Amino acid sequence: MEKIIISNINEKDRNWDHNLNWEFYKQDDEHMHSFDFKRSTISSPMSSKGKLEIYFYSIPPGKANFPYHYHTANEEVFYIMSGHGTLRTPDGDRTVSEGDAIVMPANENGAHQLINTSQIPLTYLEVKTAIVPEICIQPDSDKAVLIAPPKFFAKSYKIDSDVKYLYGEYDKAL
Predict the structure, then answer these.
(1) pTM for the structure as a whole
(2) How far is residue 72's CA from residue 160's CA, in Å, rounded to a whole number?
(3) 50-62, pLDDT tens digit by residue?
């Protein structure tokens, strides 16, 4: 059953998620330096049975949250609480800073990557719809990421890999 959730955005000692399945996000040595973040879950369908996902994120200086990507099912809103950074978009890089609200549609026009260019952690609130399954597209690497329930299931695939529709199937009636 859904319940009211109250979380103070000014909380200094936030409860950061330590029980996430980070196996999916593990990086190879080549990209270890590029991506890093901490996340605190306020609400997610798995925790509250609601229809929104709400998180606080903190990105260390010089790091990015995720690779450049866009969602095909879920819209996202970022509210920058502290720090400043570069938001990479299809229309070019944009400087974002404390107080900015950013809305990303669920299509290629909403492609984004947030990079912390400040000397302090870039902290932001993320609110997004929680539609699953979802496919995220990573244009730089020509990958599609499938995200599906019931528990967190995420797999990456090269977009140009393909098998015929009936490959591996057999007709039990024969």
Answers:
(1) 0.84
(2) 18
(3) 788 899 999 999 9
Q: How far apart are alpha carbons 166 and 36 in whole angstroms?
A: 40
- Summarize pLDDT for 136-151 with one digit per residue, the tens: 999 999 999 998 876 6
- Identify any residues that bridge with 89 across adjacent strands, giving them in sequence order: 92
What are the tokens at 40?
A: 């605190």
Among 34, 37, 19, residue whose Cα is nearest residue 124 = 37
Domains located in the chain, CATH noted: 22-131 (2.60.120.10)
Beta-strand runs (E) in the chain: 38-43, 52-59, 70-71, 76-82, 84-89, 92-97, 101-104, 113-116, 122-129, 134-138, 143-148, 153-158
Write the DSSP string, 63-98: -BSS-SBEESS--EEEEEEESEEEEEETTEEEEEET
Q: How far apart are CA 22 and CA 51, in angstroms?
A: 23
**d(C-alpha 40, C-alpha 55), whole Å:** 6
Q: Are 136 and 72 in contact (CB under 8 A)?
A: yes
